[in-house]
Amino acid sequence: xxxxxxxxxMEEGYLYKPxxxxxxxxxxxxxxxxxxxxxxxxxxxxxxxxxxxxTPETFEKLYCSDKFPYDEKLKDWVRKLVHQSGxxxxxxxxxxxxxxxxxxxxxxxIPVDEHNLYRxxxxxxxxxxxxxxxxxxxxxxxxxxxxxxxxxxxWGGDPMTITHVxxxxxxxxxxxGLDLAVVDALGxxxxxxxxxxxxxxxxxSFSALTxxxxxxxxxxxxxxxxxxxxxxxxxxxxxxxxxxxxxxNIIFGDGATSAILSAGKKGDWQMSPIRMVTAPPSTxxxxxxxxxxxxxxxxxxKYLAPCLHTAVKPMWRDMLKDALGVKxxxxxxxxxxxxxxxxxxxxxxEDLEMNLSKEDLEPSWESLRHHGNLAAPSILLVVKAAxxxxxxxxxxxxxxxxxxxGMVIKYYGLTRKE
Length: 418
Fold this sequence. Notes:
This protein has twelve helices and 14 strands.
């Protein structure tokens, strides 16, 4: 049953909804050891961000003004939320200066751009899905290409040796997809397969990396480029009055991360197979994204952190053993998806007996502080920081864990290849 412990970052008075029954992790009983030997190494991780930033003051200025139809009680809750979220800045494709100005009288002849998306809307401060999509279509390819170029620089290899391209996004859509945008922009000529792994939310990078693992296991000479991209700033919705919907509007940001995977050599960071744990059907709406006439509705339930707590508590030691062959939380460094203050605090809960300090989860807290929750791109930022940090911690193992819509938890380990 669900723990009754209250977690930091949760509003007082919330009742924890009990859940029972977890499915997974599942693996081959006969071929798992053989499968592990074929797992690829992460050769490099890249990143790219838009030019603007939102701050707590940005959201307070918008949500607590007469631009949004909120009563004083809801405005007070928003003020408390944004200033206690642990977030200082969130990358944004949208210029926040427009929130300092008055709405523009609606004129369909005025082109939509990042400087006026919300100001020029026919329904003031609430653009249509089409208008939001125009900005997504402008920035998602740019961020994806920027992250791809950055990881290639970090890697230092020949981009013409890249054999597979995998892209991921959940904040918008366009066909042809971001995979072709990357291939065309980089002039990649030797691509055997490219695939879009979309609409998987915050565990999007785990999904994309799972496909990359399969490519590398099947073709030992594969060199796989993975990108994860989100443009969430286009989905702010003044008609969201449910607190879980407002939370979804406020903590998500824009950006892209990327990785190069290949068989690697001795000493490289080799992955373990990515595993999955699925919570029962009663949790399906705890994290959700739904398309509406006013863009995507991003929903984060107040039961999300308690659900994660319930799932992790009985099985985190088994997860560590499966991914890294260790049982103690201090036998490795940690990369936890920065899904929010309450989510990271789950891993500090005393009754989990992990005994992880703020310093132990510093990469996650720093990512949340400076980027908010970028959804799929976030965990690769944390992994990059955790791998770099091993030079100081002298660890040769990193445990990576995240979650997303479903409710689904995914994890893997990184160890030095022998």
